[in-house]
C-alpha cells in the first residue's frame, strides 16, 4: 500500500514524492522505474475484479511527476499509460480508449490546452483533470471552460491526487453505467410506447401484459406526468380490441353538463343548441376503450350515472327515454387520493369498487431514477428524428438530471429536453441548457463545489428575480461568488482572476456576511 507520508513532502513542482521509495511495490507489472523517464508507460495492474477497469492516461513532460502519478493511479486500480508529449498522447488516444486524462497544461510547445480541446471534441465522454502551476491559473480556468472536470495545482500531495482520481473515477463509472443503459434502450424498448427498464417498470409491464388481455375496468394511479394515459393506451393497444377505438375523456377539463352529454350523448332538442342527436363516447367506442382521465374530478351526480351505465351496460342519452347499449371497456385514471375522497364522501364508494377491479400504480420518476437516462435519451432521439439535428448530453447534464427529483415526472423531463435542444448552441447539451429549476436544485442540494452553505445561499440570491433586474452591487457579488464556486473555493485564485487584491476579496466577503473566521488577510 502507498503511504500517505511518502508523498507528503512537496517537491518544487509536481507530486510530493520521496524519490520513488513509496512506489507501490509488487503492484506494477512489466516496467522498471527507468522506463518511465524515456518512453510511454504501459502499466498493467493485478486488479481486484470488483475494481472498474478504467483507463488513465497521464500526460506530463516531467518524468518523475508522470511516473509518480502513474504509480498512484495504478495503485488505485486504474489501468495506466503515460506520455511525455502531445504527439505521444495523440498516438495513444488514437489506438486506445481513455477514460481519464491527467493532463499537465504546461507541455513543451504549449499544446496542453490544444490537446484538451481535441479530446473533448473527439471523445467528449473522457474525463479530464488538468495539472497546473500557480503561474498558469488562467489556463486552468480556460481548461475548466473547455471541459476539464477538475484541476490540481502543482505541487500537490498524494491525498489531493488520490481524491481527484477517486472523484473522476466515480463520475466516469456512473457515466459508463448510464451509457450502457442508453445502449440497452436502443436494442430493447419498453412495452408499446412505454420506456423504462427499472425494476418498477418491469413489474408494471408484467401487470400490463396480463391486464391487457382481459376486459375488466382498470384504475391507473400516479402523480401528474407519470404516464397514466400512456399506460391506458398501452393496455388498449396490446389487448384483443386494439383495432377498435381508444377514446380519451378528460373529466377535469370539461364542465359537468358537457361531460354528461359527451359521455352519454343527447337527443335532438335535449337542450338549446342540440339541433341534432349525438352519440355519446361510451356508445361510440363500440367495443373499444373509453379512458376517463382525472376521474376524481367527476361530480357526484355524474358518478351515480356512470355507475349505473357500467352496471347495466347501457346509457341513457340526455333527453332520451330509451337506453342505448354500450360495450366499451372503461379505464380510469387519477392523481388524487380516491380512498381519501371516498372517506370524505366526495367520491362514491360503489363506483370506486367498480373501477378499481384492477389497480395499477405508476411510481413517480424520482422513485425509479434508473429510468431517467433512458427516457432522456429516448426523447432526444425522438426530437432528432423530427428535426434531423443530432444532440448528446454532457455527462454533467445527465448526472444532474438523474439527481433531480422531477416533481412534474416524465412530462417535466420531456419538456426540459425539448427546451435544452431548442436553446443549446452546439451538439452537446450542457447543464446550463437545462431549465432554471434544475440549476437551482444543483446549487441548493448538491451545492457548488467549494462553497459553504452560506455562500451557496448568497449565489442563489444573486440570481435575477422575476423582473430580471439586478443591481451592480449584486452583479459584483454574484461574479465574486461564482468565480469562487468555479475555482472550487480557491479564494486566492479567485482574487487573482477577478483582478482584485485578496484583501479586497476578503473585505467584500465580510461585507456580504460570509467571510469565515481566521480567513481575513
Ligand atoms: N414510461 C414512459 N415512456 C415514454 N414516455 C412517457 C412515459 N411516461 C410518460 N411519458 C410521456 O410523458 C408525458 C406525460 O404522460 P401522460 O400524459 O401519460 O401522463 P399522465 O400521468 O396521464 O399525466 P396527467 O396526470 O397530468 O394527465 C407524455 O408525453 C408521455 O408520452
Question: What would your notes on this structure say?
Answer:
GO terms for molecular function: ATP binding; sequence-specific DNA binding. Residues 1-25 are annotated as: Disordered. Helix 4 runs parallel beside helix 5 (137-146) and helix 20 crosses helix 21. The protein has a 7-stranded mixed sheet, sandwiched between helices. It has a 5-stranded parallel sheet with strand order 9-12-15-8-16, sandwiched between helices. It has a two-stranded antiparallel sheet with strand order 10-11. The radius of gyration is 31 Å and the shape is elongated. It starts with 27 loop residues before the first strand and ends in a 10-residue tail after the last helix. By secondary structure, it is α/β, with parallel strands linked by helices. Residues 1-51, 184-190 and 517-521 have low confidence and may be disordered. Helix content is 46%, strand content 13%. Residues 193-196, 222, 224-230, 293, 335, 375, 410-411, 414 line the site of adenosine-5'-triphosphate.
Amino acid at each position: 500500500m502507498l503511504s500517505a507520508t511518502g508523498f507528503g513532502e512537496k517537491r518544487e513542482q509536481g507530486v510530493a514524492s520521496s524519490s520513488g521509495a513509496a512506489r507501490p511495490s509488487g503492484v506494477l507489472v512489466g516496467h522498471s522505474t527507468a522506463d518511465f523517464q524515456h518512453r510511454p508507460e504501459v502499466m498493467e495492474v493485478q486488479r481486484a475484479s470488483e475494481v472498474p477497469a478504467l483507463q488513465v492516461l497521464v500526460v506530463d513532460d516531467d518524468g518523475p511527476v508522470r511516473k509518480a502519478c502513474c504509480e498512484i493511479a495504478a495503485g488505485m486500480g486504474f489501468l495506466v499509460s503515460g506520455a511525455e508529449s502531445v504527439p505521444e498522447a495523440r498516438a495513444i488516444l488514437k489506438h486506445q480508449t481513455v477514460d481519464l486524462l491527467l493532463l499537465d497544461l504546461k507541455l513543451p510547445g504549449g499544446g496542453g490546452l490544444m490537446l484538451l480541446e481535441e479530446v473533448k471534441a473527439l471523445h467528449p465522454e473522457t474525463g479530464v483533470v488538468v495539472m497546473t502551476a500557480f503561474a498558469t491559473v488562467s489556463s486552468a480556468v480556460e481548461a475548466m471552460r473547455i471541459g476539464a472536470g477538475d484541476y490540481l495545482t502543482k505541487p500537490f500531495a498524494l491525498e489531493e491526487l488520490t481524491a481527484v482520481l477517486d472523484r473522476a473515477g466515480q463520475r466516469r463509472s456512473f457515466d459508463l453505467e448510464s451509457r450502457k443503459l442508453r445502449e440497452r434502450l436502443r436494442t430493447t424498448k419498453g412495452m408499446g410506447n412505454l420506456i423504462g427498464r427499472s425494476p418498477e417498470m418491469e413489474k408494471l409491464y408484467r401487470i400490463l401484459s396480463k391486464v391487457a388481455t382481459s376486459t375488466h375496468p382498470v384504475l391507473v394511479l400516479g402523480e401528474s406526468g407519470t404516464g397514466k394515459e400512456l399506460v391506458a393506451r398501452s393496455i388498449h393497444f396490446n389487448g384483443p380490441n386494439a383495432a377498435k377505438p381508444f377514446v380519451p375523456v378528460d373529466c377535469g377539463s370539461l364542465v359537468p353538463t358537457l361531460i354528461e352529454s359527451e359521455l352519454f350523448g343527447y337527443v335532438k332538442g335535449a337542450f338549446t343548441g342540440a339541433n341534432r342527436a349525438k352519440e355519446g363516447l361510451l356508445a361510440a367506442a363500440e367495443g373499444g376503450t373509453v379512458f376517463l382521465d382525472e376521474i376524481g374530478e367527476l361530480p357526484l351526480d355524474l358518478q351515480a350515472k356512470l355507475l349505473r351505465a357500467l352496471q347495466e351496460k347501457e346509457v341513457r342519452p340526455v333527453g332520451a327515454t330509451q337506453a342505448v347499449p354500450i360495450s366499451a371497456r372503461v379505464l380510469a385514471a387519477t392523481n388524487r387520493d380516491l380512498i381519501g375522497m371516498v372517506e370524505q364522501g366526495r367520491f362514491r364508494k360503489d363506483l370506486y369498487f367498480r373501477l378499481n377491479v384492477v389497480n395499477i400504480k405508476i411510481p413517480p420518476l424520482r422513485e425509479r431514477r434508473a429510468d431517467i437516462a433512458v427516457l432522456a435519451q429516448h426523447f432526444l432521439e425522438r426530437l432528432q428524428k423530427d428535426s434531423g439535428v443530432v444532440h448528446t448530453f454532457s455527462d454533467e447534464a445527465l448526472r444532474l438530471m438523474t439527481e433531480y427529483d422531477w416533481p412534474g415526472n416524465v412530462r417535466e423531463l420531456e419538456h426540459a429536453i425539448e427546451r435544452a435542444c431548442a436553446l443549446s448552441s452546439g451538439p452537446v447539451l450542457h447543464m446550463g441548457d437545462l431549465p432554471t429549476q434544475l440549476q437551482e436544485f444543483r446549487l441548493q442540494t448538491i451545492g457548488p463545489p467549494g462553497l459553504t452553505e452560506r455562500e451557496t445561499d448568497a449565489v442563489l440570491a444573486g440570481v435575477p428575480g422575476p423582473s430580471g433586474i439586478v443591481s451592480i452591487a449584486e452583479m459584483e457579488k454574484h461574479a465574486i461568488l461564482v468565480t469562487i464556486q468555479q475555482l472550487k473555493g480557491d479564494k486566492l485564485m479567485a482574487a487573482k482572476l477577478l483582478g482584485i487584491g485578496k484583501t479586497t476579496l476578503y473585505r467584500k466577503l465580510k461585507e456580504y456576511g460570509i467571510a469565515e473566521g481566521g480567513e481575513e488577510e
